[in-house]
Protein: Recombination protein RecR
Organism: Trichlorobacter lovleyi
Amino acid sequence: MLQHAPTLTRLVGELKKLPGIGERTALRLAFHLLKSPQNLGSLAEALTQVQERVCACSVCFALTEQNPCPICSGGRDSSVICVVETSQDMLALERSNAYHGSYHVLQGAISPLHGVNPDDLRIRELLMRIEQGKVEEVVIATNFTVEGETTALYLARQLKPLGIRVTRLAHGIPLGSDIEFVDPATVQWAMKGRSEL
């Protein structure tokens, strides 16, 4: 591609490793960065700082710069643990301002097709947290995908014998949507999960 510029070729190759970035977008980004050297320097500095400063919280395994993270060390309700797949999921829940307990980030979901087994996730650490503390409820907030559902079922089987309340995030028809436009699987889940008024 760029035989005369192996460094640029390497940059394009590294950018292509990012999710959603193909050859053309990587090339466009590389040339954009080269047009403004101050942006290139800022990006390089930010990447270096992230590599040096961001780590997994030793309690909940969320990405943080402070260990334990501000949520784990900030006096949140530790009797309820919300289990999520990723730090991004945790941030989405935090943005909603609907939950004020603690978290546990599994760092993935069970996916035999991709070689991810329960031992590859932070499930053992979750069980240890429950055994050590005064946990009354675990909210399973894994994604509503095949992998997320598999993980939720596995967690429920592991947690129920411990005598704590195990709940799952509700799922169904999104607020503000018309039923006629909702897919059949979502309508089925909504019917199964209906509640009394």
